[in-house]
């Protein structure tokens, strides 16, 4: 870092210019080529003073004053800069992973090791006896070695396959403990093949395969030219090997490879077995040499095919295939299995309904990841208008697909329980994204950072929209009506403030009648107290006059006003008040630092993946709703709890992982915005879309929620506004949010099932 310049003794004007230059110099010295639009995102923090470069003098004092209160986050290229910029925009999906290939020189040594082939010989790294290597021996090593011993015996029995039998015998010792050993390909000179005597060939090959690194001459191997002078026997041995030995070994290595890949941390073992099956076993046996490394570092003679030191690497959770995280890659076959079982085994002959429901729900997680990756890729490579349309169209497609399929199934069966499950899932998503997601991010981020700060103004926009959409309520009460045995209990109004999605609920409580199915006189007095069960507000009195004339118009009005408020929020944050997010694309740049954008997914590829993932998501949602009925009817757990937890939070797991990653990097603003944006979309987009859907396809869904949903949602929003006021937090505040969320889950767990279920 250049040293700070000496303070000048001039007047205030030159001093201010010097300060301006020094802060602009901070931007200039950040790595990244902004001439290629490798943009920098700025967040509040005062950088140290730097010496002013000559090419920053052109900036005005206004621009440099903005540099004083901002620091920079670099992006490698224009696409990555757009993705980072979109993360800070309200209404855009926040995405942590890169949408472009990072330059190899910018990656850490840990990440470079993940993508390296197992053919690099390193210096002494200590003992090879580690817990991970012992785990390999117990899981794979012993039986893989035994398989090679059996295959060696079979090859020796065939006589013509004796050279391959010798190779299998050597590989049996290698795969029992491959660590600290090397498999090398050596070129056998043609002159050696022409020798008629075995001794001459052995001496020549032994002289040519010695190495100071590997400790002198190589032990003699069975040489095919020592027992047969004709190439006919060599070809016959190769045929026997390819027909008998190779297929069985490929099957064994394939089983190890798949198992190790699914365990993620054992991916080095998967690479080891894949390279053996595709390279080592296809080489002539006389070209394969297995040696044990020693402590010196003299280059090997010949090509190194395999060299492994560790079987386990815990950092492989960062591994990606074409930009896709390894966990999403591993869960993709689960989607295929779910679709095949769900639509082929329609009569539940192979699996039961709970198993299919679980598989369908788990399949939603990788599909949500692919949808999020596709949206982020398209938005980063497109202009603002296209990105906004894609985010608004597909941002809530995961939840809406499940909700709509559940409502359609409930309408066909005439079962109101599905509508109640959808309401529980909506409330669970709102409460979870307001309490659990930011709380968990605060706790995990607080483990690494003592205190985390975030942009309270940007969080205040989402909080204000949430408070508008949820509203407030002081309370309602019920009182017995006149006459009747048992009496009809009528809702009486208490002071209330109806607003947002709960306005129809409060309206129905004020003007509707509370009708109970079972009432028992506790005091045996006609004017005494009654204990009633299965109570609900009747909105269909007088042929539904109250509902169709008052409640339904209010529902439609709210469903139109909430999206309008959401659009106003978009215009406020993305057009007129963009400065509240403290994002600035700098024009300063450092010459000679160029990185071209190599995107993982092009726009067309991302669009195809987005459409296919949405189609598969619809199929999985259909299977989940098809097989949820036995769980609802036979389970002893409240349907409220199932909707609030499983159906609400499982589709949001990719978002939770993104939030945790942002929090670990001390970027809590994005962690909070992830939860807030989902909650705002639930209230201002998803619920109005479901209401408008009922106009074209009549269902049992009405915008009247139970008291438990209303109180839980409003309390969560009020608590969130209180926590987010000062713009800083720690793990204790996160613990409070998480504990409150678990308390609400306990309330839902012990709550009775909703009426109609």
Automatic annotation (TrEMBL):
Start and end residues of each Inner membrane component domain: 131-181
GO molecular function: calcium:proton antiporter activity
Protein name in UniProt: VNX1 protein
Transmembrane segments: 134-157, 239-267, 324-345, 357-378, 384-404, 425-447, 554-574, 606-625, 637-657, 678-697, 703-724, 731-751
Domain Sodium/calcium exchanger membrane region: start-end pairs: 355-469, 606-748
Pfam families: Na_Ca_ex, YccF
Membrane topology: Multi-pass membrane protein
UniProt keyword terms in alphabetical order: Antiport, Calcium, Calcium transport, Ion transport, Membrane, Phosphoprotein, Transmembrane, Transmembrane helix, Transport
Subcellular location: Endomembrane system
Species the sequence originates in: Stercorarius parasiticus
Keyword Thylakoid: no
Keyword presence, Transmembrane helix: yes
Any one of the GO BP annotations: intracellular calcium ion homeostasis
An example Gene Ontology CC term for this record: vacuolar membrane
């Amino acid at each position: 870092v250049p040293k700070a310049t000496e303070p000048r003794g001039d007047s205030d004007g030159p001093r201010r210019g010097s300060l301006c230059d020094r802060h602009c110099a901070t931007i200039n010295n950040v790595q990244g080529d902004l001439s290629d639009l490798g943009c920098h995102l700025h967040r509040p923090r005062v950088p140290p003073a730097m010496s002013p470069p000559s090419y920053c003098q052109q900036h005005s004092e206004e621009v440099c004053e903005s540099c004083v209160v901002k620091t920079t986050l670099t992006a490698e290229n224009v696409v990555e800069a757009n993705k980072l910029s979109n993360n800070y925009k309200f209404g855009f999906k926040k995405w942590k992973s890169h949408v472009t290939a990072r330059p190899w020189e910018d990656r850490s040594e840990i990440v470079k090791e993940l993508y390296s082939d197992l053919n690099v010989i390193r210096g002494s790294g200590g003992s090879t006896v580690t817990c991970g290597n012992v785990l390999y021996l117990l899981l794979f090593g012993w039986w893989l070695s035994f398989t090679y011993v059996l295959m060696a015996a079979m090859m020796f029995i065939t006589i013509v396959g004796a050279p391959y039998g010798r190779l299998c015998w050597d590989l049996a010792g290698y795969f029992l403990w491959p660590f600290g050993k090397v498999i090398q390909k050596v070129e056998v000179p043609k002159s050696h093949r022409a020798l008629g005597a075995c001794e001459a060939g052995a001496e020549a090959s032994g002289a040519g395969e010695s190495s100071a690194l590997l400790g002198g001459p190589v032990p003699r191997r069975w040489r095919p030219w020592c027992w047969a002078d004709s190439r006919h026997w060599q070809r016959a041995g190769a045929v026997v090997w390819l027909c008998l030995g190779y297929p069985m070994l490929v099957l064994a290595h394939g089983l190890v490879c798949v198992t190790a890949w699914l365990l993620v941390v054992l991916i080095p073992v998967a690479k080891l077995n894949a390279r053996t099956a595709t390279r080592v076993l296809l080489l002539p046996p006389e070209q394969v040499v297995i040696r044990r490394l020693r402590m010196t570092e003299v280059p090997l003679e010949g090509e190194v095919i395999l060299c492994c030191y560790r079987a386990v690497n815990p950092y492989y959770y960062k591994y990606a295939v074409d930009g896709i995280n390894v966990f999403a890659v591993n869960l993709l076959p689960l989607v295929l299995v779910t679709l095949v079982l769900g639509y082929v085994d329609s009569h539940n002959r192979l699996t039961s309904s709970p198993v299919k429901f679980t598989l369908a729900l788990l399949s939603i997680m990788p599909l949500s990841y692919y949808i999020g990756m596709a949206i982020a890729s398209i938005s980063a490579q497109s202009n603002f208008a296209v990105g906004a349309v894609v985010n608004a169209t597909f941002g809530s497609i995961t939840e809406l697909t499940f909700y709509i399929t559940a409502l359609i199934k409930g309408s066909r069966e005439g079962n109101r329980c599905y509508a109640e499950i959808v309401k529980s899932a909506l409330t669970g998503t709102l409460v979870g994204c307001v309490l659990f997601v930011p709380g968990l991010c605060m706790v995990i981020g607080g483990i690494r950072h003592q205190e985390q700060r975030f942009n309270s103004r940007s969080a205040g926009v989402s909080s204000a929209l949430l408070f508008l959409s949820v509203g407030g309520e002081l309370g309602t009460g019920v009182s017995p009506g006149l006459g009747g045995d048992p009496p009809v209990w009528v809702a009486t109004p208490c002071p209330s403030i109806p607003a947002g999605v709960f306005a129809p609920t409060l309206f129905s409580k004020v003007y509707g009648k509370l009708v109970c199915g079972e009432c028992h006189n506790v005091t045996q007095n006609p004017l005494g107290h009654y204990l009633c069960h299965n109570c609900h507000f009747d909105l269909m009195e007088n042929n539904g006059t109250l509902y169709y004339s008052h409640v339904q118009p209010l529902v439609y009005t709210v469903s139109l006003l909430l999206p309008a408020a959401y659009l106003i929020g978009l215009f406020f944050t993305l057009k007129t008040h963009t400065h509240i997010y403290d994002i600035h694309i700098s024009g300063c740049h450092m010459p000679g630092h160029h990185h071209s954008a190599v995107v993982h997914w092009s726009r067309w590829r991302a669009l195809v993946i987005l459409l296919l993932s949405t189609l598969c998501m619809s199929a999985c949602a259909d299977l989940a709703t098809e097989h949820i009925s036995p769980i609802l009817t036979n389970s002893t757990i409240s349907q409220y709890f199932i909707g609030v937890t499983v159906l609400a939070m499982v589709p949001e797991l990719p978002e939770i992982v993104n939030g945790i990653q942002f929090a670990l990097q001390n970027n809590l603003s994005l962690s909070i915005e992830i939860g807030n944006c989902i909650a705002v979309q639930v209230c201002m987009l998803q619920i109005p879309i479901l209401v408008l859907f009922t106009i074209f396809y009549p269902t049992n869904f009405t915008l009247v929620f139970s008291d438990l949903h209303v109180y839980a949602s409003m309390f969560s929003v009020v608590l969130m506004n209180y926590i987010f006021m000062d713009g800083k937090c720690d793990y204790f505040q996160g613990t409070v949010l998480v504990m409150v969320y678990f308390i609400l889950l306990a309330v839902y767990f012990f709550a009775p099932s909703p009426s109609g279920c």
